[in-house]
Amino acid sequence: MRKPRLSKVAVAVTAAALLPLSLAACSDDSDDKDTKSDSSSSAKPSSPDKGSDTSAMSEPFGPACGTVPKSGKGSFDGMSKDPVATAASNNPALSTLVTAVKKAGLVDTLNNTDNLTVFAPTNDAFAKIPKADLDKVLADKEQLTKILTYHVVPQRLKPTQMDNGNFTTLEKSKVKTSGSGESYEVNDASKVVCGNVQTSNANVYIIDTVLMPKS
Q: Disordered: where is this region (predicted)?
């Protein structure tokens, strides 16, 4: 039994269909070359990527940063627009600190002073202090002020400045910082759990233990 032969019409139709494809392939080859030459010339200015890496290094870091609200006044963006005491009041994890700052009458001092670094203890940090002792401190304005101002350095500290540092606080005694990368401690006892949080007038390092100045 003989195989049916394609008709001349079918052959012509097939050829007509294939011709544009072959022309397109040729065109694509030349376009690819042009595209490669264009992309190679436009790919040269890759230095901005380094800038973006630098910018990423200035972002907040640490295991507790994930608990910060993603939007609103308590978010990193929201906090960056407010002075530090106001910004802290919008972060639920710092509510005990905010109560202490209000009792000590330090809200205006913190909000109206430029270029600060605040080591901000979390609610859990305050919870490490026996309740009777904490209540006693909260009721003693002089002692409370001494403790809170010990958490404030009158300059904005970048993470790299904290690798091995000693800084005079508003309380007038020094805090020691150590660490590198995204792991830092204050006074060899309190860990930074969310660092380099920006407010309009301060850098904030949220810590897991309340700092106590020497008597």
A: 26-77
